[in-house]
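Follow-up to my post from last week.
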Amino acid sequence: MERRERADAARNRQAILRAAEELLRRHPPEQVSVERVAAAAGVGKGTVFHRFGSRTGLMLELMSERAREFEQAFTEGPPPLGPGAEPVERLVAFFADLAVLAARNGNLVSAIEHARVTTKAHGEQRREENPIYRSWHRHVSRLIAEGRSDVDAEQIAHMLLGTLHMEPIASQLRAGQHERLAAGFADLVSGLLR
Amino acid sequence: MERRERADAARNRQAILRAAEELLRRHPPEQVSVERVAAAAGVGKGTVFHRFGSRTGLMLELMSERAREFEQAFTEGPPPLGPGAEPVERLVAFFADLAVLAARNGNLVSAIEHARVTTKAHGEQRREENPIYRSWHRHVSRLIAEGRSDVDAEQIAHMLLGTLHMEPIASQLRAGQHERLAAGFADLVSGLLR
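User reply:
Got it. Predicted complex:
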């Protein structure tokens, strides 16, 4: 009986996350309410709050889940993203996937940034202390250092990761475009490491 | 008599701009009031308002003046920043000077960004429509295209110019540090163009 309850809970959790993901793909984040997610997932509103604490908790969990999948792919997955390829190939693959992730999750990122602004009074987390950012920065720094021992890999990793957030790149990503950004990364990284 | 009045006005204008510049170098922008600038310049508060319209007008004029000097240097000044050097050398010089400008003017940029946020209701200007940004972007794009005809020069120029504004680079600049950023630009640009 207890095992069945846990299985139900896991199924509900997945259904809620998938429903939120699907809604965020098609609607601006401010229109994706807990009520709407609950209805799309076929659960009660109380179940969403019980599992995720709040709407922000749900958004953060969705972003964390995607970031975990991406991290697993670049640390343990097949090459060229994962181990086994040259640093330059791994970096080109990393930034191409990061551009796709940023373009696909533009609404989600907005929803989280919005949540952060509104909870600013409780202390804002600095970007470089965010565990997701730190994991990306560590990965990129290591690969740059592997390919070029004579450059300031940590600084260049911050510079490359920073390019996603400024206009007009941010607008491209919000519009779902990632090819130009991925090509720009590929040229910068190939130039640096070859 | 009229000529003398014009000369006085020009001298006042310069004295006010230099006083504001000096105060912004030593104090956080919120402490640099029109009263304080006027006192340091040896003019009345009314003269500042008469010349620049408002505190924001003064800040914008100061930023514009520096940007004009910089633009003149990279379009007509001596090499390697100005014409006569290879594209890669000109780009390395441009980004080194831009890093210095950004580090020296961190307080000024904050003062202007703050002014912009508070006047957001009157319609915010998009970064890529700002004439200063456009002039920098045009210059960088052209030099990249001259050095590498096979890359998306406009996109890469936006990416490189965007790196100044994200954390932790923005914090380095606010602390007056520009060497690491300049070195990072030099490695990225040299890799791309050599």
